[in-house]
Amino acid sequence: MYFKNIIGQEDVARRLRMEAGEGRVAHGLLLCGPSGSGVLPLALAYGRYLCCQHPTADDACGQCPSCRQWEHWVHPDTHFVFPIVRSSKPRRETCDDYLPLWRGLLTENPYASLERWTAMMDAGSGQPLIYARESDELTRKLSLKAMTGGRRVVVMWLPERLHEAAANKLLKLLEEPPAGTVFLLASHAPGQVLPTIVSRMQRVEVPRINDEDLSRALVERLGVDAAQAGGLARRAGGDFGRALELLATDGAEASLLGLFTSLMRLAWTRRVREMKQWSEQAASLGREGQKAFLAYAGRMVRESFVANLHQPALNYLSPAEEAFTVRFAPFVSERNVQGLMDELALAQTHIEQNVNARMVFFDLILKMTVLIKNS
Known about the structure:
Rossmann fold, Zinc Finger, Delta Prime, domain 3, 3 domains, five-stranded parallel beta sheet, two-stranded antiparallel ribbon, 7 strands
């Protein structure tokens, strides 16, 4: 990953290069931005730039031994920390146990979402976290002498996923890192990061990718038709990883739409036996799949409400979603939209708290039967 591979974000990239060129490299950066905005790619490009033996004013050289090692994510003084799901068969307890898979993700798409990473780990209903043992491992690694004699870089993806015990163990290391060590934290939810960690970092805000840059990237890198690329960019909301998912997984999007359509139709018809079957189907998605569906359902409710304003430029829908929304939008109004959104948000909170998924989804559809009639 080079700065030239970053989609948009020229101002952030320029700032990072300038600080490095002027010798003002902070010992810890917290790159904050929404999913798919490029916080992880920026951390990777900056890490490579800091390790490069012959950097130019614009980017890493790409030719030195350090750059060649970064090409395959095997630089000996670069350490990756990311959320994992611990398992006993096969035995996986630290990030090192997942490194081959992690390198595969970075090679495939460094803009990938947590949901994609969770699927690659085959985590099922497990929630990916950064555990206390990872903090011990990182402390051990950084206590050793740097193998290349240059800077050491720690790239941490999603510090909001730090277990509290892991976060507390890292505090002293982040406050007084070994000489020549730089921490690059890439976060999508900085508000969920322990404040004592945030206070030890220099914060860098990364905005969403604007639609023009995102559309151009789809055309130039993937050969997508310009009109299709524009539609994908709008629907993705500045998330390049989401745009790729929309491009590659129309079937998955159709599946979520089908599940959402069934939810609302059953809520209207009140067929209890089928409502129970629907809740079991939704519960079978796995923890991250359940959260993804609830987020999707929330988006569809919002889009349906906005559709009532009859301003097409404000809607971000696929053709199939638009066809459904034409029929569904009249059932979402000022009288029930807040209630619908509140119930979906409450269901997502319960899923995150490991409440029984069948109970959560059956309770959700029962509440929808009342709200949908109140349009």
